[in-house]
């Protein structure tokens, strides 16, 4: 039986919130804005918890990188059924420039430290849409990867992954240890129920810094500017077909 | 003993000589004894009324209407079809004319003309009413508020919103939201209902617990009377004690005293932090104790307290494929908190949840702070009506009762109906003492209806409850008004109706009982 699953969870701006660009165009407004766990990370946590419930893995460890607030996100993962959490403290300038490369270095180091044999991540984060962390982590560890998973089955020391790709579905078999990234249809995450929310309060979250894992946080990417997409023009309502035809003619469309 | 005491213990002399109208003695509901059994003429109260001698629409009438509303007079039977049937698909009228005015002046011209011609008019907003009050019974002209849909003014300091009566509630919520305010009412029908309709029916909804009823939040109205006179009561004032408060007459009058064309309403500030908890209780007693504890620990941030029973949950799962977020329980509660500081609110909420879980008042539950999850949890309560519609023909009852008795009515009704009913469910605004009792049968069943009514109304009357807490009387419940109002009150209502609408053209056959018109 596989010992340990590592699940990465990212704290992002809640997907229902209307995003506003900062007046100085250096980024988006995050102060006072509702944050929650990245939806794909939720799916990853759910899958890991289900594997534990099927007794195919022994322990689920939730990891998040960021400032103090990411502890909330780790608690949510614990409330969904993860056994313990690891908070890798990253704040200030390092947090601003935190990207897939730094996170995958951290995850790779943790995987070795925790002797994990399965890493499940969300396929991408909804704030940066990078879709790189899973792939980079696998490369750094020299592990096989099953990305965009819509189905995950553990068969002994192999993992069967059904991947959602452009042409349809691709089924691959990978030798453990592996990195899997979750796609939308992998599962429907459960609600964290009160008894579990209360149990989660007692579960441990370990704190550490990237330095403790020997990870260099320098970024080679610099964000130059963030702009809003062009405003959508309002449509025009017309009262009759004649009106419609004349308006289309005016606009030079017919 | 004093004479008044004697009357409480025995029937006061006048009351036993109460007029017998149409063979029915008006029910006695003073005193502690069970009211006399009404002589029930096999569903006479529920039967459709007879068409009153209004004029019928002629070609000349259409010419006039087309002159006032060019391009907005609809006679196409396909379009009229949907306006002639209510949302529940239980009542159908035969109107041949649908009018869509854009301005108050147009409404005034229409009504002045119809009054002179003795043409009956059925005002219609979003057509989401549940008592058959929003559709014609016969060939009444449908006067739609659909194009009276402009927001006229919004004061960002006071939160006072002025808009036309045909604004859809959800659009107004979105408008207010952009300004950091919310509408003081919210109901499942928000995507379709018009604010004019809400006001005319004194809609309650999910936020009444927190913000009060429309009778408090509506500051002013513009109403067009039956003869076309425009009554401008549009004040944007919180306080105005100058004469009789006429707007209260029109609020809840279901379109029978005047057509509301504009509304001024007070909007509260949008709360910074909203949390929703979905809890499971093993018994109604525990539910009530949870409510009591909730009021104590969450008091000032509590904004909704709703319940549904296990039957509702199965219907949601079967017909709408919604998932139960927690383990199966006999009762479910939706609690919403709304406050200005998320850290404070979460602390209060978590303390409360801790307490109810450890004391086993609640057996399971989940909490949501993210918008998407909040919507998902709310849909479990808001979509019950929809799920019921899929299950069969629904008999809906909206009863106000003392809070402890709310579920007793559901259990009694289940026992009383036995296998005649496919399903008997209860849900609603338990925080306001308001039960939505629904009985489902595979198809319309006259025998079942006879078993339900007047049993349910008598039950409510025995507890001095209301036979229609928020849905109004409309067509379906007009004749049952006596279960909740004394005859003198109904007589006075009829007087007021006669004064404001002597020809009775505004939404006839609705709200007031049939015998109120025989004078």
UniProtKB/TrEMBL annotation, chain A:
Pfam families: ETF (PF01012). One of its GO terms (biological process) is fatty acid beta-oxidation using acyl-CoA dehydrogenase. The keyword Transit peptide does not apply. It comes from the Eukaryota. GO terms for cellular component: electron transfer flavoprotein complex; mitochondrial matrix. Signal peptide: none annotated. Its main location: mitochondrion. Residues 25-217 form the Electron transfer flavoprotein alpha/beta-subunit N-terminal domain. Keywords: Electron transport, Mitochondrion, Transport. InterPro entries: ET-Flavoprotein_bsu_CS, ETF_a/b_N, ETF_b, ETF_beta_N, Rossmann-like_a/b/a_fold. Belongs to the ETF beta-subunit/FixA family. PANTHER family: ELECTRON TRANSFER FLAVOPROTEIN BETA-SUBUNIT (PTHR21294), ELECTRON TRANSFER FLAVOPROTEIN SUBUNIT BETA (PTHR21294:SF8). This is Electron transfer flavoprotein subunit beta.
TrEMBL record, chain B:
Its cofactor is FAD. GO terms for cellular component: mitochondrion. Signal peptide: none annotated. Residues 91-270 form the FAD-binding PCMH-type domain. Its EC number is 1.1.99.39. Transmembrane segments: none annotated. The keyword Zinc applies. It catalyses: (R)-malate + A = oxaloacetate + AH2. One of its GO terms (molecular function) is (R)-2-hydroxyglutarate dehydrogenase activity. Residues 22-51 are annotated as: Disordered. Catalyzes the oxidation of D-2-hydroxyglutarate (D-2-HG) to alpha-ketoglutarate. Also catalyzes the oxidation of other D-2-hydroxyacids, such as D-malate (D-MAL) and D-lactate (D-LAC). Exhibits high activities towards D-2-HG and D-MAL but a very weak activity towards D-LAC. Belongs to the FAD-binding oxidoreductase/transferase type 4 family. This is D-2-hydroxyglutarate dehydrogenase, mitochondrial.
